[in-house]
């Protein structure tokens, strides 16, 4: 496996700190790391709310990337509270596709870190609606 995946995993693991932010908001139960095309790594955690205002870790990491002036993703890993890689949800896949409509199919997604199973967003989302 490419060493960059280890860096991404370690970066996500560092911010994986489940906690209650308030009585109705939890954060950090899932963490993600995104590698931009430039090679920089951006991290984010999920924020779960009592309504639909929460955000997934992947989108949070992508927002961090955008905040820092970048807008192209190379790879994504999300990990759950046990440190296991989990696939991006439909909303995150949709967001990545809208962010990179011409290139989204090339984004690499870590599906299973232990078994080094990587797929592209194009494999997960072959016929995007737009």
UniProtKB/TrEMBL annotation:
List the GO molecular function terms. Answer: cytidine deaminase activity; zinc ion binding
- Give residue ranges for domain CMP/dCMP-type deaminase: 1-130
Q: Which GO terms describe its biological process?
A: nucleobase-containing small molecule metabolic process; pyrimidine-containing compound metabolic process
Domain of life assignment: Bacteria
Mind telling me which SUPFAM superfamilies this protein's record contains?
Cytidine deaminase-like
Q: Which InterPro entries match?
A: CMP_dCMP_dom, Cyt/Deoxycyt_deaminase, Cytidine_deaminase-like
Instruction: Report the GO terms under cellular component.
Output: cytosol
* Sequence similarity: Belongs to the cytidine and deoxycytidylate deaminase family.
This chain belongs to the protein called Cytidine deaminase
The lineage, from the top, is:
Bacteria, Bacillati, Bacillota, Clostridia, Lachnospirales
